[in-house]
Specification:
Layout (H helix, E strand, L loop, with lengths): L2 E10 L6 H19 L3 E9 L3 H9 L4 H18 L6 E4 L3 H16 L3 E11 L4 E3 L17 E10 L5 H9 L4 E3 L1 H12 L5 E2 L1 E2 L7 E2 L2 E6 L1 H6 L1 H8 L10 E5 L3 H14 L7 E5 L2 E3 L2 E2 L10 H8 L1 H10 L7 E3 L1 H28 L25 H5 L3 H22 L1 H6 L3 H22 L4 H13 L12
Parallel strand pairs: 1-2, 1-12, 2-3, 7-13, 12-13, 14-16
Antiparallel strand pairs: 4-5, 4-6, 6-8, 9-11, 10-11, 14-15
Length: 474
């Protein structure tokens, strides 16, 4: 049995969860379910990042303390994950007192190893990003992500000597010990490292909502250091040490620098094992525009789950475009995807079972194995290669192609004609063929669409057809 430790980023809770959070989390859930089905020992970690100036600022606007603000918002994330059938093993909060202790211990160890130095620093700080920016990072004087000019700040901070770890980090990436994917993302990271790494501030003097710097109550540990450490401290807190190092950290590309450079450098500094792989997926636009509260095109996952169901949302987001690339989504495309599922898979199941009942076909038995989802079947629906390379869209296309081909098979064989002509043996063979195909489809769909897979298996056993994707009134 192999150990498989997979993580989402811990999501920053300055606002309610949106479809971007769901995209990352669904992808991780599919991989966790896939590895469990293969028999791996899986630890799936997700959670929330609750410290920093941005949280304090958002709380103050609402007249709340940061703790009150966090305690009210965190359940909104947990609730959406429940609605989406996210099978995490642990939901982590950075306000966990044990985590805060481990963070302080980790920073103390960095300091004892000579990788931290206190010095004065003046720079351009973006509150939205919770980081200092260079002049070269700005677009027309503004942060490229938040479209606001950064604030010039001068303060004395503790710095992590990232520059001293540049060669060691580069060596680990180039020899494959730390894999960064997709390849384009790796090339970007390696290129920037070769340009030279600068030491980074790991504390703030003007931020009260955070983990206190050990031995210096006037400083708090920089929120990103606190957040990145969750992957390690969670193993300690929940007695999951056997799972370290992480098999895969998965996140959006805007935070890959923290995960592929700063985080592994911190681990190298303490001679700890590195995560095996960091994968950064792309962004998506909505109807061709970047998601924005100002534009009003932010998609609330709660709304589309209520209308289309969790599985249809899971299917659409991972099939809309290749994982790792940027792409576009829309409610109109979601509706088309839902109808396609109804036509390809829902129709195949209903017509097959209905004909078995109508024509009183006997001798066909359910051959599925509930605890063996990804396995060789008569029809060889194999998606291991696609899932191992995080090609979710490719895996789902392979699955729907099989369903479409089976619908064509039924149309070509015309079992209704076979029944009318009394060709019982050919009729049984035809429906057995479709029945076995559906059994295989139910098995390979389980990581992507767990509710649908369960309904398919149940109906194949009971021979009581029910619509998988009921018609939705617009």
């Amino acid at each position: 049995m192999s150990k498989y430790y997979i993580t989402t980023p811990i999501y920053y809770i300055n606002d309610v969860p949106h479809i971007g959070h769901a995209y990352t989390t669904i992808a991780v859930d599919v991989l966790a379910r896939y590895h469990r089905a293969k028999g791996d020992d899986v630890f799936f970690l997700t959670g929330t990042d609750e410290h920093g100036a941005k949280i304090a600022e958002a709380a103050e606007k609402l007249g709340k303390t940061p703790r009150e603000f966090a305690d009210e918002l965190v359940p909104k994330f947990a609730d959406v994950w429940k609605k989406l059938n996210i099978s995490y093993d642990q939901f982590f909060r950075t306000t966990n007192p044990k985590h805060e202790e481990y963070v302080q211990d980790f920073v103390e160890d960095l300091q004892e190893n000579g990788y931290i130095e206190k010095r004065e620093y003046e720079g351009l700080y973006c509150v939205g990003c919770e980081k200092f920016l260079k002049e070269s990072d700005l677009v027309e004087g503004c942060c490229p992500d938040h479209k606001k000019p950064p604030v010039k700040q001068k303060e004395e901070n503790y710095f992590f000597k990232l520059s001293e770890l540049q060669d060691k980090l580069l060596e680990r990436i180039e020899n494959g010990e730390l894999k960064i994917a997709p390849e384009s993302r790796k090339n970007e990271i390696v290129g920037k490292i070769k340009q030279g790494l600068e030491d980074v501030s790991i504390s703030r003097a003007a931020v009260e909502w955070g983990v206190s710097y050990p031995g210096d109550s006037k400083q708090t540990i920089y929120v990103w250091i606190d957040a990145l450490l969750n992957y390690y401290t969670a193993c300690e807190i929940y007695e999951k040490e056997k799972f370290w190092p992480a098999s895969l950290h998965l996140m959006a590309k805007d935070i890959v620098w923290f995960h592929a450079v700063i985080w592994p450098a911190m681990l190298i500094a303490l001679d700890l094992p590195l995560p095996r792989k960091v994968f950064a997926h792309g962004f998506f636009t909505v109807n061709g525009q970047k998601m924005s509260k100002t534009i009003g095109n932010v998609i609330d996952p709660n709304v589309i789950i209520e209308k289309y169901g969790a599985d249809a949302v899971r299917f659409y987001l991972l099939s809309a475009f290749p994982f790792g690339e940027d792409g576009d989504v829309s409610l109109e495309k979601l509706a088309l995807s839902y109808n396609k599922l109804a036509n390809d898979i829902g129709n195949l199941l209903q017509r097959t079972i209905s004909m078995m009942v109508k024509y009183n076909v006997s001798g066909i038995t359910y051959k599925g194995e509930e605890d063996s989802v990804i396995r060789d079947t008569k029809y060889e629906i194999r998606i291991d290669k696609e899932l191992d390379s995080l090609d979710f869209a490719g895996a789902l296309k392979k699955i729907t192609d099989v369903a479409q081909a089976e619908n064509k098979y039924i149309a070509d064989r015309e079992p209704w004609t076979l029944a009318k002509e009394g060709k019982t043996e050919e009729l049984t063979q035809t429906l057995q063929h479709s029945y076995d195909c559906l059994t295989s489809l139910a098995q390979v769909l389980q990581p992507f669409m767990p509710e649908t897979a369960e309904k398919m298996a149940s109906q194949l056993k009971s021979l009581e057809p029910m619509p998988l994707f009921p018609r939705i009134e617009s």
